Amino acid sequence: MANVEKTEFNLAGPSGPTGGTPPTDPATARRGTINPHALNTETDIETTLRPRSLAEFIGQPKVRDQLNLVLTGAKNRNVTPDHVLLSGPPGLGKTTMAMIIAYEMGTSLRMTSGPALERTGDLAAMLSNLMEGDVLFIDEIHRMARPAEEMLYMAMEDFRIDVIVGKGPGATSIPLELAPFTLVGATTRSGMLTGPLRDRFGFTAQMEFYDTPDLTQVVSRAAKIIGVGIDPDAAVEIASRSRGTPRIANRLLRRVRDYADVHGTGHIDLQAVRAALIVFDVDAMGLDRLDRAVLTALIKGHGGGPVGVSTLAIAVGEEASTVEEVCEPYLVRAGMITRTGRGRVATAAAWRHLGLEPPEGTIGS
């Protein structure tokens, strides 16, 4: 069971279990306790870009309002909240939301991932160590092994599991009672979840891509936290190139900060943003080198399609799964390509983005 990735975060504020006193015991620090009042190094500052409470969380207003009702109702009744399923593309804040749930409830967060739970014993070890009210976060929950998933059914409904001891005719089932806990599952592919698992979640939230105003707030907040000055129009420029994803917005901000430190005064203005993102191959629509390579292969190499994803992957020197999972979702959402039964087809917007005139009859022309 040593391969189970498990971390405990004591996220409660001054009224929660951790209180407001920074930990002084080195052994406590080694166990991974996070204290929001501790002094931050540069690495710690990057970590604190995550909001700690629903009030600090930017964007996703519908999810925030719904989750606030779930958590407030549970606190008023003094019970553990229902299990929560968070679905949506990577980088939209699913892990952050799990941390916020633990923070709002004043409990600890245990973290693992679906691929790490290969055996029922791995899951049983985690579940048996949970304290009452703890939040168990399983990232990429759709990738759990089937035996572990089936054990999770009973744990979610009845807060108990059956541990099988021995093999063959002499095997014995030992019931093990669990402390009431809240499971938070995150998935980027909700369609791959089995029906029985999906139905056991009391609240399901779909995380949506961010619009530019919300991402501008994310960039401005992050700039303040990491201690860099940024002009309002520069924050808007970074936000508009972030593909609707806060994780990308924060990453671009850090790279622009590097450029401003090396080639300027450290203050981020619009000129610094544009110059930095040219260096890092991010164009005005947020497309990077690989995105443009896919469009170039599709248009210049195959006349705009239709082309199969495997052929495109060979043309750009990447795995088919990378093209399909990393590039294609944004290109489809941006209206650059469409998926057909015969393959991928470039739209008129893709032709124009590469500075080419689309042929007559092109989709979107």
UniProtKB/TrEMBL annotation:
Residues 211-281 are annotated as: Small ATPAse domain (RuvB-S). It is an enzyme of class 3 (hydrolase). Residues 1-40 are annotated as: Disordered. Keywords: ATP-binding, Cytoplasm, DNA damage, DNA recombination, DNA repair, DNA-binding, Helicase, Hydrolase, Nucleotide-binding. It is found in: Cytoplasm. One of its GO terms (biological process) is DNA repair. The keyword DNA repair applies. Residues 80-214 form the AAA+ ATPase domain. This is Holliday junction branch migration complex subunit RuvB. It comes from Corynebacterium matruchotii ATCC 14266. The lineage of its organism: Bacteria, Bacillati, Actinomycetota, Actinomycetes, Mycobacteriales.
